Automatic annotation (TrEMBL):
It comes from Bordetella genomosp. 9. Pathway: Porphyrin-containing compound metabolism; siroheme biosynthesis; precorrin-2 from uroporphyrinogen III: step 1/1. This is uroporphyrinogen-III C-methyltransferase. Its EC number is 2.1.1.107. GO terms for biological process: methylation; siroheme biosynthetic process. PANTHER family: S-ADENOSYL-L-METHIONINE-DEPENDENT UROPORPHYRINOGEN III METHYLTRANSFERASE, CHLOROPLASTIC, SIROHEME SYNTHASE-RELATED. Belongs to the precorrin methyltransferase family. Signal peptide: none annotated. InterPro entries: 4pyrrol_Mease, 4pyrrol_Methylase_sf, 4pyrrole_Mease_sub1, 4pyrrole_Mease_sub2, CobA/CysG_C, Siro_Cobalamin_biosynth, Uropor_MeTrfase_CS. GO terms for molecular function: uroporphyrin-III C-methyltransferase activity. Residues 19-227 form the Tetrapyrrole methylase domain. It is an enzyme of class 2 (transferase).
Length: 265
């Protein structure tokens, strides 16, 4: 479904060259927007906004900016990508400054590369502004070290859901010792859990599942891999959530204790 908020637009825009900005709006907290993203958004005449972009961020729009909601969320009815592409081209060719506003970062499961290439093929000026993806914001949000000396020397950001039903190389990830942050894994958390166990992840691997990272509605549960699906169901967590898998999750509790001491001081 597409909703639109209209406002007056300058009559001289058709004589100007339009441009599309792919703007990463971060995981939801408007304080996590980059300075550049906030500046670009304040100047944009048209916003094409993903479903996960919060109302507080929409409040940064300039008076008279046109806001078109083009919701895209896993497991829900979405605006077709082809239609979004045509909207970007239409407004840019009218001389508008267009902000394609995406949750997280445009280049992490955000189709940013596809959209830049599509616009370039049609001679439409486009540029991207990076944002903080939920899989990285989760560390600060929970006091969870995604890397930890002697425990995890890296992070892998993966998706459990793809259009062609392919999967990451879970066996390689199980052997890597990396912290794995899984997006789009809530549709079938039981199936994901079984895939990971079959691939060689230990049953007692620590897991954190975080719903709406950095937002006021943020909720999380800490579990272990063989109980992950049951604990997700018991907590009533759903999409949008990220699933953090790996030994580094076990250090989250110590971070929580230190944070509580600091806040009490």
């Amino acid at each position: 479904m597409r909703t639109e908020r209209r406002g007056p637009m300058g009559s001289d825009s058709a004589s100007r060259a339009g441009k599309v900005w792919l703007v990463g709006a971060g995981p939801g907290d408007p304080d996590l927007l980059t300075v550049k993203a906030a500046r670009v958004l304040a100047q944009a005449e048209v916003w094409l906004v993903d479903d996960l972009v919060g109302e507080a961020i929409l409040g940064l729009a300039a008076p008279g900016a046109r806001i078109v909601k083009v919701g895209k969320r896993g497991g829900c009815r979405s605006t077709p990508q082809d239609f979004i592409l045509r909207l970007m081209a239409r407004y840019a060719r009218q001389g508008r400054v267009v902000a394609r506003v995406k949750g997280g970062d445009p280049f992490i499961f955000g189709r940013g590369g596809e959209e830049l290439a599509w616009l370039a093929d049609r001679g439409i000026a486009a540029q991207a502004v990076g944002g903080i993806t939920a899989g990285l914001a989760v560390g600060a949000a929970l006091g969870l070290p995604l890397t930890h000396r002697g425990v995890s020397r890296g992070v892998a950001l993966v998706t459990a859901h793809t259009m062609d039903a392919t999967r990451p190389d879970w066996r390689a990830l199980a052997a890597s010792g990396l912290t794995v942050v899984c997006y789009m894994g809530m549709r079938d958390s039981d199936g994901l859990m079984r895939e990971l166990l079959d691939a060689g992840f230990a049953a007692d691997t620590p897991v954190a599942v975080v719903h709406r990272v950095s937002c006021a509605a943020q909720r999380h549960v800490v579990s272990r891999l063989d109980r992950m699906a049951a604990d997700i169901a018991a907590a009533g967590l759903r999409s949008p959530s990220v699933i953090v898998i790996g030994a580094a999750v076990s250090h989250m509790r110590a971070a929580e204790r230190r944070r509580a001491i600091t806040q009490a001081a």
